[in-house]
Automatic annotation (TrEMBL):
Bilayer topology term: Single-pass type I membrane protein
Name of the protein in question: Transmembrane protein 81
Gene Ontology CC: plasma membrane
Function statement: Essential fertilization factor required for male fertility. Part of a conserved trimeric sperm complex with the essential fertilization factors IZUMO1 and SPACA6 which bridges sperm and oocyte membranes during fertilization by binding to IZUMO1R/JUNO on the oocyte.
Gene3D superfamilies on file: Immunoglobulins
């Protein structure tokens, strides 16, 4: 065996080779992806023992779980909710809570009324539970973008997350698609306390509509009679003028 060094190559002697054969070590045979695409997560690795003169069984492997961080920058996620509901924004989530929520420092910032990831538009936001923002009941003025930053005990940033919240008034839009479809197919379901039998309009409304229709009809008939009367009155005069000219 030859060991390489920046300066020169050294050929190992037989005693040194025999000493190396006695050494056993753990190596990573398999490594699984991080459990979180952004922010701090957990990674599972398989370690196997190799080396040494003694026969090592093939089952001499063990699993271990370590922390992993692919990127601390999380993208912008938006959600639309109705005013009056309860909304909970969780920054640590399940993976980081499993490590212990008191091992991290969480801070929140808020950009009111806009959905953005421009950090210059955010101002400090005081969250009562630190790792979560609980809005109960949710109001229209709570709409905007919430940003949370997570630091570990060494003051290193391990996560930054943006959550955009759009708040709609219940009177403006209903997000219940199934209910809206039923109302579209059966208009009578919009008024469950009223029946569709009989007249759809009050009697006074029907009477007023009849009077208006009769008045309009009488006016049109009078106008037609006046036009006919004028036409037949002018016709003899024109005939007399034509006879005089002849």
């Amino acid at each position: 065996m030859i060991l390489h060094s920046p300066s020169r190559c050294t050929l190992l002697t037989n005693p040194e080779l025999q000493e190396l054969e006695k050494i056993s070590t753990w190596v990573i045979s398999r490594s699984f992806p991080c459990s979180a695409t952004c922010g701090l997560g957990l990674r599972t690795q398989e370690l196997c023992l190799i080396g040494g003169k003694r026969n090592i069984p093939s089952t001499s492997c063990k699993m271990r779980t370590i922390r992993c961080l692919d990127t601390w920058q999380c993208g912008l996620k938006t959600q639309t909710v109705t005013a009056g509901q309860r909304l909970e924004l969780d920054c640590l989530e399940e993976v980081m809570e499993a490590m212990g929520r008191f091992a991290f420092v969480v801070s929140w910032r808020f950009a009111r009324g806009i959905i953005t990831s421009d950090d210059s538009l955010f101002s400090r936001y005081e969250a009562l539970s630190l790792d979560k923002v609980v809005l109960d009941p949710l109001r229209e003025e709570d709409s905007g973008t919430y940003r949370c930053d997570v630091l570990d005990t060494d003051k290193r940033r391990v996560k930054r997350m943006y959550k955009g919240v759009k708040v709609l008034s219940p009177s403006e839009l209903s997000l219940d698609f199934a209910k809206g479809l039923i109302q579209w197919e059966n208009p009578g379901s919009r008024f469950p306390n009223k029946t569709t039998r009989g007249n759809l309009y009050p009697s006074s409304t029907v009477r007023n509509m009849a009077l208006i229709s009769a008045s309009i009809s009488a006016a049109i008939a009078t106008l037609i009679l006046l036009l006919l009367w004028g036409f037949y009155r002018i016709r003899p005069r024109r005939a007399a003028q034509l006879s005089q000219d002849v």
